[in-house]
Amino acid sequence: MLLSSFDSSAVIERSHHRTISHAVFHSLYQQLQASANFSPYEFSLIRDALIHFLHNGSLPFLPLSLSTTRRPSTPQSDPVIPALSHVSHSAPNWKSLLFAWAEHSQEYLIAVSDEGVVLFSNKRAQERFSLYEGLVLEVDWEQERLSNWFLEELDLGEKTGYRLFLIRPCMSTLSKTASSYSFSEIQTNSPLYQAQLHTARIAAQSLSNTLLLGETGCGKEVLARAIHSSSSRKDGPFLAVNIAALPRELIASELFGYTEGAFTGAKKGGQPGKFEAANGGTLFLDEIGEMSMELQVLLLRVLEERKVTRLGSHEEKPLDIRIIAATNRSIEEDVRNGLFRADLYYRLNVLQIRIPPLRERKEDIATLADEFLQQLHTQYAGGPTGICESALAILQQHSWPGNIRELRNIIERAFLHAYGDSWLTSHHLPSEWQQQYGLQEASGEPLPLLRELERQTIQQAITQAPSISAAAKKLGIARSTLYRKMEELGIG
């Protein structure tokens, strides 16, 4: 992860990759959980405070005893981390806590100054990238150590003065012993998607190239893996390459490979490309619409001749490979506008599968939300196990521009807020959603006075129970959750 206050558009322009995600805080949550004596609800407060910190540059007051934290020891002098410089002197424990997490996090964390100078990199980043000092824009991004990685920018909402990035691998390999997706794991109640899955099963039984169309986050790679796992090539490799994530100057060498001395910095002995590595299996080319015209010519030649030539070599290597391509662009419009070669489009578009966005398959929202909730319950060995009708009504009304990926992140955030409860309710969803959707049911009629009913139920439990702890037990929620609800509902 990279936290920066300088304009790194030159780097980001190379990746063209955007995502809206709160999943980056998941690792922090786990790190804190392993090192402190906090309750699950107190962890949700910490998590919200960190989000507030990134948005506003300050930390809200938290009713927590940070002295219970068993933090790893920190160096004598803290590195200058721009984000941490905004922390008030009255909260030294927070600064130490955040630094301790940064130093020992399993994420790749790099902090950069206004001028783009690398001021700090944690142990994991140093071990992998050796970025200790110097200008980010002067880092040799063509070095092999970064060839399989890209910068993914996370949306922090309004202008914060900082930019947050996660260093992610841009290709993944699935061997015959690795876990994979199958069609049986893709559950849908949508007739629209069921029809597309029928075409996908036909694709699995053929050797033809296949083109997947769909918005970001709708599950294109999951479907590509299911096609591979159900095909005659299931015992061969599955390689996924995100074209948009690779720097343009590296794409050719990554896909086609290179020989020793092919260019400055080429590895001794050369390196095979992804086409060679996927031989006998499936190569998934994601975001194919971002491919340059020059690279489209090279790809077309490989598809026509079924041979690949490494950069710097004249030797042709035969290929036995199946291509599954995907894009979130209007590829036919790109062909008409001359942005994508028509002959390459016809080569890739033997079988076409359009994955509908989540807003067109709302029959699946409840099933997917429950599936994600059960996964989280298993992962955390606790937490809510069900979603109430008021929350489902809101989930059904949202337009889901981020599709399944957005739904997964929303359920995870709500799960953490509801950890001490048995049910995930509308109050655990984003507050702006409660204002936008919460007052209306799908029919447009006002909801019953659920909030007033909840207030009366809590008041009755408090009156009948001898203590707050007993009232919380009677309601089936944690004491900290009961205090929060009392504050939300104005119960003295």
Automatic annotation (TrEMBL):
Keywords: ATP-binding, DNA-binding, Nucleotide-binding, Transcription, Transcription regulation. Residues 186-416 form the Sigma-54 factor interaction domain. CDD domains: AAA (cd00009). It comes from the Bacteria. PROSITE patterns: SIGMA54_INTERACT_2, SIGMA54_INTERACT_3, SIGMA54_INTERACT_4. One of its GO terms (molecular function) is sequence-specific DNA binding. InterPro entries: AAA+_ATPase (IPR003593), AAA_lid_NorR (IPR058031), Homeodomain-like_sf (IPR009057), HTH_Fis (IPR002197), P-loop_NTPase (IPR027417), Sigma_54_int (IPR002078), Sigma_54_int_dom_ATP-bd_2 (IPR025943), Sigma_54_int_dom_CS (IPR025944). One of its GO terms (biological process) is regulation of DNA-templated transcription. SUPFAM superfamilies: Homeodomain-like, P-loop containing nucleoside triphosphate hydrolases. PANTHER family: PROPIONATE CATABOLISM OPERON REGULATORY PROTEIN, TRANSCRIPTIONAL REGULATORY PROTEIN. This is Sigma-54-dependent Fis family transcriptional regulator. It comes from Brevibacillus fortis.
